[in-house]
Amino acid sequence: MASVTMTVNGKSVSGDVEGRTLMSDFLRNDLRLTGTHIGCDTSQCGACVIHVNGEAVKSCTMFAVEADGAEVATIEGQANTDGSLNVIQQAFQDHHGLQCGFCTPGMVMSAAALLKDNPKPTEGEVREYLEGNICRCTGYHNIVKAIMAASGQDVSAVAAE
Amino acid sequence: MPKDGGIGASTTRREDVRFLTGKGNYTADINTFGQAAAIFVRATVANGVIKSIDTSAAAEMPGVLAIFTGEDFVDVGGNPAGWLINSRDGEPMKEPKRPVLAHGKVRHVGDAYAAVIAETEQQARDAAEEVIADIEELPAIIDMAAALAGDAYVHDEIATNQCFDWGWIEDNRAATDEAIKNAPHVTTLELVNNRLVPNAMEPRASIGTYDAAGDSYLLQTTSQNPHLTRLLISAFVMGIPENKLTVIAPDVGGGFGSKIYHYGEEALVLAAAKKVGRPVKWVADRTESFLTDAHGRDHVTKIELACEKDGTFIAFRTETLANVGAYLSNFSTATPTFLHGTLMAGNYTVPNVYVNLKAVFTNTAPVDAYRGAGRPEATYSIERVIDMAARELGIDPVEIRRKNFIKPEQYPFGTAAGLEYDSGNYDALMDKMEAMVDRKAFEERRKQSEANGKMRGLGINAYVEACGIAPSNLVGVLGSRVGLYDAATVRVNATGNLSVMVGAHSHGQGHETVFPQIVGEMLGIDPQSVDIVHGDTSKIPFGMGTYGSRSLAVCGSAVVRATEKIIAKAKKIAAHMLEAAADDLDFTDGQFTVKGTDKSVGFGDVALKAYIPHEFPIEDIEPGLEETAFYDPANFTYPSGAYACEVEVDPDTGKVTIERFTACDDFGNVMNPMIVSGQVQGGVVQGIGQALLENTTYNADGQLLSASYMDYVMPRADDLPFIAVDHSDGTPCTHNPLGAKGCGEGGAIGSPPTVVNAVIDALQSGGKNVTHIDMPLTPARVWAAMNNA
Q1: CATH match for B16-22+485-631 among 3.30.70.870, 3.40.50.2300, 3.30.365.10, 3.40.30.10
Q2: Considering only the top CATH level, what class is A87-150?
Q3: Shortest Cα distance from A80 to chain B (angstroms)?
Q4: What interface predicted TM-score (ipTM) does this complex get?
Q5: Per-residue pLDDT reduced to its tens digit, B95-133
Q6: Is B26 within 8 Å of B205 (Cβ atoms)?
Q7: Which residues of B touch A34 (CB under 8 A)?
Q8: Is the minimum CB–CB distance between B39 and chain A shorter than 8 Å?
Q9: Within chain B, which residue ranges are assigned CATH 3.30.365.10?
Q10: Are strands B280-283 and B36-42 parallel, antiparallel or unpaired?
């Protein structure tokens, strides 16, 4: 077992983990932050995306010990300080960018990472960036639309509804 | 009615807030004090005799609490098929037992033959590695035709691999044969409807808990229909009395059919919880999902379309082999038959239809309903062969369909495949689709593509489907062993807010938002004061759950009926309060008013009166304000659509790019257009996935080669354009109180032939003599077809 200490959503946390403990399991099982989801076992689906030191990371693909000392952000820390939805979350609700909600935490975290680096992405850039996030419900239509809207772009001309 | 947020409003979803903030409550998120973990030991061969299973070493591993094998379940029942199909000769289908854990033989890769319960998941996983099974591998039975011809069987006790040989409608067979023999033109197409894995993003998970004090059980599980799961466990598999078993399906991360069914893991965690005296939790990994979730489609079909030289349809005849896999999943026998054969007249007045379908056991995962369930297979066969016939006859693909459409004045229309369609307007859908596509402009777009070195094609398609399943009386005659009503309880609380308990389960469909829109509209109150309760058998009335696009058409209708009962009772109470006759009251905007006067009382005051019944006519009216309704539909609902797809094909690589996709649907009256559009877009993309990307591949040994997201190609954002949808002018369903038709599956039904028709059109326009390619139209397949043509 190894001791780890890190900052998660602004709070300092620590725990004892096995060498094989995945970051996603540490978040879900030890910290009870179950908003980070596990949808596959091959780092493909992206439901587990978090931010580690500001970078989007698939938390099923790193060990908890690797995050020792890191600054970590998860879906649970994304809302505004008054509890209201942040701009990206609000755009997902406004544009029906989620259905079952399972891929949603990873989508929101990926979208945040994209917009940090590319504040006004084109449709093609959004689609390409989401290559590592799989959604089975929405056909991505409203996810792409929501992310473009969250970046301040006018999406009223996007096909239908 | 409410000022906003009622029927027809694109109200944003209230459930989104918890999902967007990481506060969803999926089964895998639930952790209970003292819980243990279950891990299953699964077959690595497709077909084999279990000679022995040695669990002694595993039992000594750290943390192990119990180990189960098939031997532990020989005395409990099998997981049953929910629908009896009779063969053409009258013989009932073959129903080999589907045990909780494999016993005697393993029959597909992933078939579980043991389960280890340990303190932690990692300990259970480590111990599972130490379970030593001596399994004598037998040749795998994979190919359907070979399975029927051979003398080795998936289930030795039935001595055949044919589950049934079904004819629909058998009495029409001779006339259809005769019509085809005499027809001026017959187009024949052999096709494969590719096997798919549903791939809800949340893997299945189950937690069993046993309460010794009450001898009662709790199952928390990833289900689309908790009451159906409870019924199957109680009545067939475990024999736990229904009143001693609560099934809760909390937030569920997508289903698409795969979570309709009861699976052995659910029974196992319940048995294990009792044995070890602690809650037992199992969460599938994605590989297990690929190996053991019920798959979809997997038909091999020969279809013939007989027509006049002018394109008038005379007959459709099909012969199909349908894979049911190694065991009969709960709806696996209904899906290729009554959800498929009955749709083989499509949108058309064709007078002759005959369907022959043989269901085949193989050493593969069970196959059952997946989004669309039978209707995508019907639509694909019909609409592909029509496109081929149009090309052979030199008739425009839109015109040949219009020529044969059922016309608006012909409803109700009894089709040659035995259904009575209640409403529709296929020409109007086609008009709208043509306007949105603008075929003149398409020619310009095609020239542009050609200038860029690409071939461009336009594929069009019409579909009709039967959903909102189903009239219990009808399905009972056809072999269903369950009823298919749904139920709702509307509870008006004393302070005027409402709890509505529904039998449907929401796992992405937005029930928590839409059902309150309906109740709010009917009662003239703010929908925000209505909360939906679903997914817990201890709280909701007995409902059949969510599949077959039935939540709104069936359960929504039950919500309407229960709310009508609330209004009727509230009116009596209001009449007493206003000292008037109930018949003299109007109810509008949440106010009961004596006609022609200004005397009125609000709904909230009536609710309070119902619970504080002072000065109350207790001899005439019971206190309280709570009503339940069960709704059993009179017919299926029949959504329809006209779809168009434009593709570019790269002549050098065979890569297909979807450039535009247009979906015009008739869902009758629409409750929440935003949500309906989302359903269509998601369904269309699943259909595009089937058409271009997704394929489930077993090799000859029965190994699933496509068992991860590295190998099974899911549609991703960069495979797709925006999807243009329209559902603004539906023809209302004539037999349910909302006038609504199911909208959950149309997209997945209408899109695959649209895409394939577009690719064939592109290749033809590029001078390639290709008339058909089997799905998925991967670059390799398209390139091979082009270069052999």
Answers
A1: 3.30.365.10
A2: mainly alpha
A3: 10
A4: 0.98
A5: 999 999 999 999 999 999 999 999 999 999 999 999 999
A6: yes
A7: 22, 26, 28-29
A8: no
A9: 16-22+485-631, 299-470+635-788
A10: parallel
